[in-house]
Amino acid sequence: MKVSIFDVAKKSGLSVVTVSRVLNGAETVREKNRQKVLEAIKELNYQPSAAARSLARGKTGIIGLIVTTLQDSFFDAVVKELNEILSLQGYFLAVSVSTGMNSDGNHDLLQEDRVDGLILLSPMEESKYLLELKRRAIPYVLIDNQLPENDSYSITVDNYDGGYAATKHLLELGHTSIAHICGEEMFRSTRERRSGFLQALQDHGLAPFEIVHGEFDIASGYEACQRWLAEGNLPSAVFAGDDHIALGVINALLEAGVPVPGQVSIVGYDDHYIASQLRPHLTTVRQPADKIALAAADMLLSRISGKMKRGAGIRIDPELIVRESTVAAAD
C-alpha cells in the first residue's frame, strides 16, 4: 500500500500541515520538527507526489529549454547535464528544438502557466524571445547568446580567451604561418574566437597566413584546405573555428598525403565527441558543459525563487586540451 502524507504525520507525531510545510521548504518550521519529518520520510520511504507539490507551490514543476539543434555533441552534453541537475531539484526538463518564434511571437513553451522558467541555448532571434518572456514575466537564462546587450541573465564561454589560448599554443610550438577558418559571422563565438586569434598573433608581431570565412561544418575546412593544396601553399598550422572544420582540414590533408601533424598542426574548438576519436586525436579548446549547465540551472532557480533580483552574466573559462594534432614547427 502506498505511503501517504498522513502516514508521515502519524510516524513523526506532527500534523499534516507541518509535514506539508517541510515538503515545500517553508522556513517557519522548527529545525527539531523538520528533522522528525525527514526521519519519518526516510523510514517510510515516502515519495511525495510531484503534481501535488507543484500545485501547493503554485508552480508547474517544469523548466523549458529551447535549442536550435541537438545534432551537436556540445549542445547535447549541456542538455544532459541540465536534465540531471534540474531533476535533483525536483524539476522536469521540457526540450523544444526550434530555430525561432512563430510570426505572431508565440512558442509552445511560452504559453501561460506552461513552465516555471525557460533556458535558451544558443538562440536565434533571442531579442524576440526576451520580449515575450519579459512580457509574460517568465524567468529565463540564456546560454551562448549572440548579443552582448542581453548578457544580464546569461552564461557564456570566454571565446576570446579560447581563441587566444589556441593560437598561443601554436606560437609556443614555433609556428609562425597560422591560418584561421571561421564559422558563420552571425555567431558571437565566431567573432570572439577570431579576435583572440588575431590578438595572439599581434602580440608576437605576426600576421595571419589567411583568415577564411566559412561555416561551422566539415565542408568549410575541407574546401579551404583543398584550395591551399591546389595553390601549392600550405600554412604550418591551422586554428579551426570548431572541431567539424578541423575534421574537414584533416580529411583534405590526409587525402593529399600531407602528414598531420608532421607538416601541418591543427587545433579545433568545442571538444566534440569526434575530437577524441579522430586519428590523430585532436588538440582542441573545451567548452565545459558541466560548468555551463550548473551555472545556468543555479541562476534560473535563483530567479524563480526570487533570490536573484538583479541580473549579472557569468563568463566561464574554456580549457585547452592538448592531444596529438599539434607538434613543434619543422625547422
Automatic annotation (TrEMBL):
Residue span, HTH lacI-type domain: 3-57
Q: Does the keyword Transcription apply?
A: yes
Pfam families for the chain: LacI (PF00356), Peripla_BP_3 (PF13377)
Superkingdom: Bacteria
Q: Which UniProt keywords apply?
A: DNA-binding, Transcription, Transcription regulation
InterPro entries to which the protein is assigned, alphabetical:
HTH_LacI, LacI/GalR-like_sensor, Lambda_DNA-bd_dom_sf, Peripla_BP_I
Per the record's keyword annotation, is DNA-binding included, yes or no?
Answer: yes
**Annotated protein name in UniProt:** LacI family transcriptional regulator
Origin species, per record, is: Paenibacillus aceti
* Source taxonomy: Bacteria, Bacillati, Bacillota, Bacilli, Bacillales
